[in-house]
Amino acid sequence: MVDKWMNKLWDRKDKILVGKYDIKIYDNKVHYHLIVKRNITIIQGNSATGKTTLIDMLLDYSQLGKNSGIVEVDENVLENTYDYADSRYYPSWERFYTAYLIERTKDTVLHYNKARINEAYLTEGNLEKIRAQLPEQIEV
Amino acid sequence: MLNIIYGEVEKDNYIFDPDTFFNHQSEDAWLEDEFTKEMVKDVDQSEIIGPHLVQSPFLGAIPPEKLSGGVKTLILIANDNEHIYNASACGDNCAKWLLKIGENKDVTIRLGYLMNFGKGPFQIHVVNTNKIVNNLEELDDEVIDNGLLQQVTK
User: Which of A2, A72, A128, B139 is most buried, by the most CB atoms less than 10 A from its CB?
Assistant: First the structure.
């Protein structure tokens, strides 16, 4: 059985993810943030921790794209912002990111509002990311 | 007693994918059973409202088909004596329930990995070698020393 699976994987090796990817997938109920480092990823863990839900979401997204209601975060926007932030509409990149975030999170659990931060963002993990970006002189 | 076949199983009554099998073969009475409700509460942290409705703290109101693969397998093992189920669909948090089911009846399951059954003591019959082990160390030694995960049982 394992040999058969490995052979199938080998046949598809050109399509298998390689390198390191920062992947965020969410709908209006669940939110996954994964960093995949290897060319083959094994998802394991206790029952009822969301493994099947994640796979189902990936299948739905691969079949229907945005019509599935599942949101993907495009890393290309972060790396090549100048290709997206049209200065005719956005006087600054900050305005662009704000508009982008509001649009991409509309009708999801992570819906963004600049006036009042959504509590879904107030996690220890996000605080840690902010801490890591701060200069050494600033202590939180 | 809990009987475990390690490795691959090639038998007519073996169910490799209990998750899908549950979706098509589960019975309403199974979901109304108190033991089932306890397992679902513990493993999925969810409450069975009725045979067609479960309240999940993460997903909201869901049908039983959206329960975890692990708890579906436990429900099948607890209620259906005709099949051998692939308990590799269960995570370690299902181990105590497999032992509890084994306390109430003779049941045979298949495992393809070293599930953590806790420190014990417990009694598990390893079908491949026809040996009864009494704790996790004995169980793991039995499986590893005899290369049971690579065996095929017909």
Answer: B139
Token pair recorded at residue B109: 């399951």
pTM as predicted: 0.71
Are B63 and B52 within 8 A, CB to CB? Answer: yes
Single-letter amino acid code for the residue at A36: V
Number of domains in chain B: 1
Contact list in B for residue A48 (CB cut-off 8 A) is: 43-46, 67-68, 70-71, 91, 93
Task: Quick: pLDDT tens for A28-51.
Answer: 778 888 777 766 778 889 999 989
Mutation pick from A27, A47, A55, A56 vs chain B, by most beta carbons of B within 10 Å, is: A47
Q: Which domain holds residue B131?
A: 2-151
End-to-end CA distance of chain B: 21
- Collect all residues of chain A within an 8 Å Cβ-Cβ radius of residue B92: 46
Cα B39–Cα B37–Cα B69 angle in degrees, nearest 5: 50
Residue A2 has pLDDT above 60, yes or no: no
Interface of chain B against chain A, CB under 8 Å? 8, 19, 43-46, 58-60, 67-71, 90-94
Q: Which residue has the higher pLDDT, B78 or A39?
A: B78
Q: What is the pLDDT of residues A64-103, one digit of tens each?
A: 876 777 776 666 677 778 888 888 888 888 888 888 888 8
pLDDT > 80? residue A126: no
